[in-house]
Design brief:
The chain is built from ten helices and twelve strands. With 310 residues, it is α/β, with parallel strands linked by helices. The chain folds into two domains: 2-94 and 264-298, Nucleotidyltransferase, domain 5 (2-Layer Sandwich), CATH 3.30.420; 97-110 and 131-232 and 241-260. A hairpin with a 4-residue loop joins strand 2 and strand 3.
Length: 310
């Protein structure tokens, strides 16, 4: 079994293939927003380099958004065309959820076209344990322009903030409200061990709105009189992946904030796509549709001009 995954919603397009053993091969572009030119050749090269024929592909998983409107259309159109030509089903994969799922998956991949499977110990070394154990909260956010983001937040198998289009302040208010509840439960669980929470932000929205995110979280802990300190990246974390963390703590609870230099790619699409495939969540090519979460900017601009002219 092979599932082809396509990701074109962000800066860089990428493709991946996942098999029945959860092994993934992956390739991504180095140039920004060059999806139309690079996507089809990239698919062909990935399949050829790994001795996989298009006839062996059982389904095509496409990242359907939100993200770049043009990028979404390119990926969805490519998946639809290949699906129709080959007579195989499509899998509609929500971009935000797939991006977060990578943080909680045992599956890893290689960009040098070797197939490999990440072990549980490797996963734990990266700090991506279950929420009940380490309370790692993945916060993928994408810049939606006009001071808005597409975002959500997730623990392992737990949706903390629903994916959607938000103003930055609105998103942070929802996230911190949920964090307050998590901390409250930790304070009353009766454990004597120090409990740790990590808020991990990634995506171009995390880059664009880093100062707003940091300020909102800092103000939250200052209101609750928590101590603050800076901590370096852990020894198992590459410096180019996780920058210096901020940390707040009480005698029993420690909360860390980190920003990761990571953007959406086809690996998460492959992982969630396979799950949907096994659960029978398949669609015909005609039913694979973009998920924008808001109106295109050109349409909003037109509506604003029409209002002014009235």
């Amino acid at each position: 079994m092979y599932i082809l995954a396509i990701e074109t919603t962000g800066f860089f397009c990428s493709v991946a293939v996942i098999d029945e053993d959860d092994k993934i091969v992956h390739r991504s572009s180095d140039s920004r927003f060059n999806h139309l030119k690079e996507l089809t050749p990239m698919i062909r090269e990935l399949l050829e380099d790994n001795d996989i024929s298009m006839e062996e592909i059982d389904a095509i998983a496409a990242s359907t958004g939100p993200g770049s409107f043009t990028g979404i259309r390119i990926g969805v159109s490519t998946a639809r065309g290949m699906s129709q030509m080959r007579g195989i089903p499509c899998i509609s994969v929500p971009t935000i959820e797939a991006f977060a799922l990578k943080d909680f998956s045992k599956i890893n991949c290689s960009e040098d076209n070797r197939k490999e499977n990440c072990s549980e110990s490797d996963r734990e070394a990266r700090g991506y344990g279950k929420l009940s154990e380490k309370r790692f909260i993945s916060c993928p956010i994408f810049d939606a322009r006009r001071k808005q983001i597409y975002g959500g937040s997730y623990g392992d198998k737990i949706e903390i903030v629903l994916p959607g289009a938000y103003a930055v302040d609105e998103y942070m208010e929802k996230l911190l409200s949920e964090l307050k509840g998590i901390i409250s439960n930790m304070e009353t669980d009766g454990s004597e061990a120090i409990s740790k929470v990590t808020l991990s932000f990634k995506g171009d929205g995390a880059v664009q709105y880093r100062s707003e995110i940091t300020r909102a979280i800092t103000n939250f802990f200052e209101r609750h009189s928590w101590k603050s300190k800076k901590s370096s990246s852990g020894e198992n974390e590459r410096a180019d992946e996780v920058e210096q963390k901020l940390q707040w703590c009480t005698d029993r609870i420690s909360v860390s904030l980190e920003f990761r230099n990571e953007y959406q790619d086809a690996v998460g699409i492959a992982i969630l796509g396979k799950r949907k495939f096994l659960e029978g969540e398949l669609v015909d090519f005609s039913e694979l549709l973009p998920v924008y979460m808001r109106k295109p900017e050109a349409q909003r601009n037109l509506e604003e001009r029409l209002k002014k002219d009235q």
